[in-house]
Design goal:
Layout lengths: L2 H47 L6 E6 L2 E6 H50 L1
Antiparallel strand pairs: 1-2
């Protein structure tokens, strides 16, 4: 194995690690945002529980407000929480996959170095 091949392997490893770290950071920030969405949905749902069932409340949609029954808003909040939880699970699985790929890349590079040392 030549020095040129080792340099190429090192460059590949570094680029893979850099890309993985960036994707992991993005996934972590998305997970935090989704956890915030879940928290806000839970707090809003708790506030809505104190209202009578026959009351209509306003739902914010962009710059407008729609008058909706409380049950409809509560269903929407449950759906929002469920969707956020599903996305969090997916992001965590992707994060684990990226970390494993980073580890595998490092092990592969170490194996190449060991091969080079044994050839000397």
């Amino acid at each position: 194995m030549t020095d040129q091949e080792i340099r190429k392997a090192l460059a590949d490893h570094q680029s893979k690690v850099l890309e993985s770290v960036q994707k992991i950071n993005i996934a972590e920030s998305q997970i935090e945002n989704l956890q915030r969405v879940i928290t806000y949905s839970e707090l809003t749902a708790d506030d809505l529980k104190s209202l009578p069932a026959d009351v209509n409340v306003y739902e914010s949609v962009g710059r407008m407000f729609y008058l909706q029954p409380v049950e409809e808003i509560q269903r929407m909040l449950v759906d929002k929480k469920t969707n956020a939880a599903t996305k969090i699970e997916t992001l965590q699985a992707n994060k684990v996959r990226l970390e494993k790929g980073m580890k595998d890349s490092g092990e592969h590079f170490r194996e190449l170095l060991e091969q080079k040392k044994s050839q000397m």
